[in-house]
Amino acid sequence: MAKRIFISFAIEDKWARDYLRGQARNENSPFDFVDMSAKEPWDEKWKTNCRSRIKGCNGVIALVSKNTANADGQLWEIKCAKEENIRIKGIYTTTDKRPTRLPSELNGVPIVSWTWSNIESFVDSL
After folding, report:
1. pLDDT above 70 for 42
2. Are 103 and 68 in contact (CB under 8 A)?
3. d(Cα 17, Cα 33) in Å, to the nearest integer?
């Protein structure tokens, strides 16, 4: 059975989520991606549905960029995954414009460069 990975990202980084999905298709990855991108402002119903999706996943990949610190939804997803004891791996979306200050929600979350081997080894470890 394929492992399910929740993708957490700032809405401004939707391009990175799309790129990750495309990369996974090209690599014939043995796992499925899930996310809860909100088209409307998120509310308690969104949080309940999102928590349920996160709990149904084997792990979370948090796409980390300069937008992460102000991405309330993404920060909530990371906090939720920690509360549910779902393993999280941060992946930097770019090699150059990395954030200098990370939000406290990412404390204790390992963050690595975006390489397929880093993504694959995280998923394999779940």
Report:
1. no
2. yes
3. 10
